[in-house]
Design a protein that fits this description.
mainly alpha; two-stranded antiparallel sheet
C-alpha cells in the first residue's frame, strides 16, 4: 500500500488500492478487494468511486480484522 502513496501523505485512491492488491496478489478476485473497500465505508463496493481517497492505516486495520488470504503463490513457493 505504501508504495502506491506517491505523495507520501498516508492516503491513496481506491484505484491505487486495487493496483496494490494486483501487484502483490494478482489472482485475488475483485470481489474480495471490493469487500475490503465496502467494510471501510460501509457501502456496497459498486457505489465506491475509483478516485475516492482512503487512509492507508485504515486499509491495513480493516484487512487485519478480516480473513484475507493470498490467492497468488509467492515466488519462493513456486
Amino acid at each position: 500500500m505504501w508504495d502506491q502513496d506517491e505523495a507520501d501523505c498516508g492516503e491513496i485512491t481506491v484505484e491505487r488500492v486495487c493496483q496494490a492488491f494486483e501487484s502483490f496478489d494478482p489472482n485475488k478476485p475483485w470481489e474480495e478487494i471490493g469487500e475490503i473497500l465496502s467494510r471501510i465505508w460501509s457501502v456496497p463496493y459498486t457505489k465506491i468511486k475509483p478516485n475516492k481517497v482512503v487512509a492507508i492505516p485504515l486499509i491495513i486495520y480493516t484487512v487485519k480484522g478480516m480473513s484475507v488470504h493470498r490467492r497468488t503463490k509467492k515466488e519462493s513457493e513456486v
